[in-house]
Amino acid sequence: ILTDPILLCGATLANYLSLPSVFFIRGFPCNLHYEAPQCPNPLSYIPRLFSFNSDHMTFFQRVENALIALMELIFCHHYFEDAVQLSSEVLQRDVSVMDLVDSASIWLMRLDFVFEYVRPVMPNMVFVGGINC
Fold this sequence. Notes:
- This protein is of the alpha/beta class.
- Helices cover 38% and strands 10% of the residues.
- The chain has helices spanning 9-17, 32-35, 59-79, 81-91, 97-101; strands spanning 2-3, 22-25, 106-109, 125-127.
- Helix 1 packs parallel to helix 4.
- The longest helix has 21 residues, at 59-79.
- It is globular and about 45 Å long.
- The mean pLDDT is 83.
């Protein structure tokens, strides 16, 4: 199933039908597009979205980066709450957002490496296009 995982409908359908899923995405809230494929994403080296930090951070900027990451977890819990509840009812088991998105076979990332900070990627992450993909 080729889907955009933001609404989690395609991920729920893929899990329900036991089909492989391919995610086509620009970015995922809370950096789940790097945590789900188990890609290293150290808070002390990679700035969070809207932190306005560079990859050369001072100690206090690193602390700010970690606090932003904690606030994102709270935001994401509320943002995906209804979708997770619906997925739990459909799949008849307790699921989390990570359970739904970590089963993706391939992540088609619409990122432009020129505008992103250097970070490691996993073999199932494929970069396609850029800003105007």
